[in-house]
Amino acid sequence: MTVHEPIGCHEAVAHLWEMLDGQLDELDQRLLDRHLAWCLRCCGELAFARELRGMLRARSEAPVPDDVLRRLETFIDDLPAPATGEAPG
Amino acid sequence: MLGVDERTELQRLCRQELPGLYSLARRLGGVDAEELVQDTLERACRSFRSLRDPQAACKWLRTILTNLWRDRMRRDGRLPDEVPVEDERDFSLYRTLEEEDPLPYSDTLHVDFLGAFSEHDVHVVLERLPLRYRAPLVLRYIEGFDATEVATLLDLPDGTVMSQLHRGRQRFERELWSYARESGLVDGLAMTADGATEGTNA
Ligand SMILES: [Zn+2]
Questions:
Q1: Which end of chain B is less crowded, N or C, counting CB atoms within 10 A of the terminal residue's CB?
Q2: What was the ipTM of the complex prediction?
């Protein structure tokens, strides 16, 4: 059995988003969990990363200007019937 | 008869996804968003048969749009291929906030800081990022594609996208901080004592 060096804050922080993305392998996850079990600051970093991630998703809508919306809706109204048969190529 | 129903269904899906598509086109940037959405709708119309499950329409349309965007950017020589990712200096917004303490009266400094950003502010910050960071961040964290899908969409190796995401996140944090300082967002927040923030649950 291999003994793994505990990781420090620097490495822990570098892995937080990957953890939130579900992209850490088992070993890195275990090392990170061990660090988070005692490091309050990195727990704070984790909560913050979660907020930031949520903010990026929730607060970056670019609203469609009215005139653009009208033109695009007309464009949709005028779309022909979808191509039938096999897709070309 | 079948054609009529399909046309109605396609139009319904397009109308439903319109705001999201326009938003994505704007956030990817570098092209005329309205034109890109029109081309996407036309392409969707031509390949509607390839959409098996209407539930997947959202992702299907976004994939078409991103592919068209990528091809256009590449044609114009504006798509950075495998540009080696420069070594961004490590930056932690969390620690910077702690050290600079821009909201001395706040008990929930970090959340209040993020709460000060409007949709417009976030958009401006994203626009400041170089394309090689912005595109992967937008596709991964706003559109919800996973990292492998992002790599396919951008036609880049997985490893390149992973490091672009990593550096891009740090750059995004750094830009949030400089934007907050330049635009007086932080001062404004410090002065409004009530500082009510909306929840940012994903
Ligand atoms: Zn730590």
A1: N
A2: 0.84
User: Is A79 close to B10, i.e. CB distance below 8 A?
Assistant: yes
Among residues 130-189 of chain B, which lie with CB inside 8 Å of chain A?
137, 140-142, 144, 146-147, 165-166, 169, 172-173
Domain, as residue range, for A13: 9-77
B39 Cβ partners below 8 Å, 6+ apart? B68
Asked if B26 and A72 touch (Cβ cutoff 8 Å), the reply is no
- One-letter amino acid of B133: Y
Domain presence at residue A83: no
The CATH number for B93-201, chosen from 3.20.20.450, 1.10.10.570, 3.40.50.2300, 1.10.10.10, is 1.10.10.10
The token duo for B156 is 């880049």
Residues A49-82 pLDDT 10s: 999 999 988 876 667 999 999 999 999 999 988 8
The structure's pTM equals: 0.86
